[in-house]
Design brief:
This protein has about 280 residues and is α/β, with parallel strands linked by helices. It is globular, with a radius of gyration of 20 Å.
Length: about 280
């Protein structure tokens, strides 16, 4: 089950000007690819281009040998489901009806679409919101519904998600993450940009890190989670100190927020003193 995906010299950008890439990687069924990097490093551009929403500046995206940028919209919808960072629909559909759009899948219906909608409603704990109008939902609720639509649409294919956890509370991050991991273990591919390093480390089988080192396009490194989230390595790229320890018998690490904030406060205080001419 599942599909194979290949990014072949893929470069993303605007008006023919690359901002990230080129990138060549092969992605196998059952992989969770976490895309990390600083703001402005091109993560969203890369994901939009990968999903076929944005024209590539170069290269190809192949799913089981089919070039997504040359494929028809129905063919793309059958191979891949995409959720934008800020899903917005100027419609007065209910949450359930938005998710039912996923069953339409570019005009080629998903087998058992209605039962899939009901299953996703249960999985994402949307029972109390199913009949609520989309415009009345909070940003986090809209995010869950949009992810639900993609889960209905995707059948052993590819899910591309831009910051799917950004608007969710802690418990809903767990609920959505579990739903995505269930798909991965069933052979689907998930490619998602994630800012929370601890969450990315918990989910990723591989990491794509976008690094902007100068005026040119960001370079993308294909890393193992062990290397990407090594405390020293990550601190060097993130610019904040990391803690490391053991939880549940497994090594864990994450940003040391208290230390990072105190260091920044100290830096601000020293800067103000220097501006005031105090040595």
């Amino acid at each position: 089950m599942g599909v194979n995906m290949r990014l072949e010299s893929l470069a993303a950008g605007y008006g023919g000007r690359p901002v990230v890439g080129p990138l060549t990687i092969d992605i196998r069924p059952g992989e969770f690819i976490a895309v990390i990097g600083s703001n402005g490093s091109g993560k969203s551009s890369l994901l939009r281009t990968l999903a076929g929403v944005q024209r590539a500046c170069g290269g190809r995206v192949l799913v089981d040998g089919c070039d997504l940028h040359q494929a028809t919209e129905p063919a793309r919808a059958q191979a891949l489901a995409y959720v934008d960072q800020h899903p917005s629909l100027a419609i007065h559909l209910s949450a359930r009806e938005v998710m039912e759009l996923g069953a339409w899948r570019g005009g080629h219906g998903v087998p058992g679409g209605i039962s899939r909608v009901e299953a996703v409603i249960d999985t994402l704990r949307l029972q109390d919101l199913a009949e609520a109008p989309w415009p009345e939902l909070s940003e986090g609720q809209q995010q869950r519904v949009a992810i639900g639509r993609a889960l209905v649409q995707e059948v052993s294919g590819v899910l591309v998600l831009d910051e799917p956890f950004a608007s969710l509370d802690t418990m809903m991050c767990v609920v959505v993450a579990a739903a995505l991991m269930e798909r991965v273990r069933g052979g689907s591919i998930v490619v998602a940009s994630i800012h929370d390093a601890c969450l990315a480390e918990a989910l990723a089988t591989r990491v794509l890190r976008a690094d902007r080192a100068g005026p040119g396009p960001s370079l993308v490194q294909d890393l193992s989670p062990e290397r990407a989230f090594d405390p020293t390595e990550f601190a060097r790229h993130a610019g904040v100190p990391f803690w490391e320890g053991v939880a549940g018998g497994q090594p864990r690490c994450g940003p040391d927020w208290r230390r990072a904030i105190e260091e920044q406060v100290g830096s601000l205080s020293r800067s103000r003193l220097q501006d005031a001419g105090v040595s």
